[in-house]
Design brief:
single chain
Length: 269
Amino acid sequence: MACISIVMSVYFFIQSDKKEIKILHILNIILQASYVAFSDSRTGKMCLMAGIVTLMIIYAIMNFKKDMKKTGISLLVLLVIATSPTTIKKIYNFASTLVHTSETKPTNIGREGDIAGDISNRRFEIWESAFEIYKDNAVFGVSRKNIISYAKANDPTLYIVNNDHMDFDSMHDLFFDILVSQGTVGVVVFYGFGIFLIVIFLKNAKKIMDKDANVVLFILPILILILVSTLVMTELVYVDSPISTVFWMLLSYLMYYTCSLKEEGSKNE
């Protein structure tokens, strides 16, 4: 949510003409970027980069021909925001090193110990377990609430139920969550639905950009940001979370807006 908040603040900063509003959004960006930095969330950094880069591309398409210099400067500022958590972390660690004494250790930001020897932070083993379950239940899966009990009853050596941490009922990846829960049928239905929506949007993207490009500038970076998060998190399906709520709400509005323009075009023909 911190990354979503940053992207939203960037958008409202661009749209607002009031200095007080711009200052508030700058403060929010600093606050949220600091949260990502101090939590040292690799997922947060990856999602923020995806969201800001998407926003940069759309902003450049909208404004590059109008004012190349201003657009170029804006894109550089956006790049600074995208990398701000990493910058904050480096500045803080450097300052911490300078002020510590011989009797104290520097309080550096970092979670290197969590991923020492395992860059995926257990995800590779979890995904391997998911695939093993899928191989025996390829058509319909084992259902979301049955993953742990199925693993314990049929293959207790699987990592998701045989590790030194916990029983993993989440696969930490949208694709593997659907694959193990609903099998091939679930994957085909869900991703088929996603492709269908993408095709509808792309067919009408020019109409949307011509009529109100700000709709795309606001919604698409957030949707891309959230989709990137599903590569390493359980979101969108099987959970009731703020991120999922934001995603389906924005996607619903984007599809509504797209279809309304499509109908409007049909009436004018």
